[in-house]
Write a structure and sequence with these properties.
Blueprint (H helix, E strand, L loop, with lengths): L3 E4 L5 H11 L6 H10 L3 E8 L2 E11 L2 E9 L8 H15 L4 E7 L3 H9 L3 E10 L4 E9 L4 H12 L4
Parallel strand pairs: 4-5
Antiparallel strand pairs: 1-2, 2-3, 3-4, 5-7, 6-7
Bound molecules: coenzyme A.
């Protein structure tokens, strides 16, 4: 089924929070998403919907030429169907359209699935933040991709996009 990607609205937040709780051991409260949508002009959040139901979400901050993935998750019942990848491509498109040249993110050292997804899109590990996750003192890998404005990156994105469901 086709994933419909749309800007996140306040009405989507209860579903987003449910997926967040099923996806992460430390979670953002609903208030944090409201604040992001209503007061953070650097923030851009999207949801992916199937038949009107939110099954995925993600967001970035864009600050001049730098962008940062703040969160991305897919409802556990809908994983492995390229929805996470479609959302990542949407975030990359959004960042590029707003003039970003670079994108960074933090990911748990143990989260090999997410790391695979990011590596597929050209992200590489540039540093480690020791004990970054306070729930279990796990390290964060800082991953980075760029130059998003280069022909090399645009060609990679185009060819990966052509393999995704429409
Ligand atoms: C990470 C996440 C968003 C991926 O979403 P998804 O819809 O299940 O993944 P997709 O079907 O789009 O797969 C895209 C790529 O991710 C990687 N991937 C997905 N599932 C994988 C698995 N079970 N094992 C290894 N790699 C996997 C692969 O690189 C895959 O590309 P491929 O199919 O060409 O091999 C999802 O697993 C999730 O929500 N995880 C919990 C939240 C989280 O960890 N977010 C990231 C925080 S940094």
């Amino acid at each position: 089924m086709n994933l419909s990607l749309e800007p996140m609205l306040p009405a989507d937040i209860p579903d987003v929070v449910r997926i967040e709780r099923e996806s992460f051991s430390t979670t953002w409260p609903g208030d944090a998403f409201h604040t992001e949508l209503q007061t953070n002009r650097l923030a851009h959040y999207y949801v992916g919907k199937i038949d009107g139901t939110v099954v995925a979400y993600g967001g970035i901050w864009v600050i001049m030429e730098d962008s940062h993935i703040t969160t991305i998750a897919v409802d556990p019942r809908y994983r492995g169907r390229k929805y996470g990848e479609l959302l990542l491509v949407k975030l990359l498109d959004e960042a590029v359209s707003r003039g970003a040249a670079w994108m960074t993110l933090e990911v748990r050292e143990s989260n090999l699935i997410a790391q695979n997804l990011y590596r597929k899109y050209g992200f590489t590990t540039v540093s480690t933040r020791r004990g970054y996750y306070t729930d279990n003192n796990e390290n964060a890998l800082v991953m980075w991709a760029g130059n998003l404005k280069s022909d090399l990156f645009a060609n990679r994105l185009r060819s990966l996009r052509s393999l995704l469901p429409a």
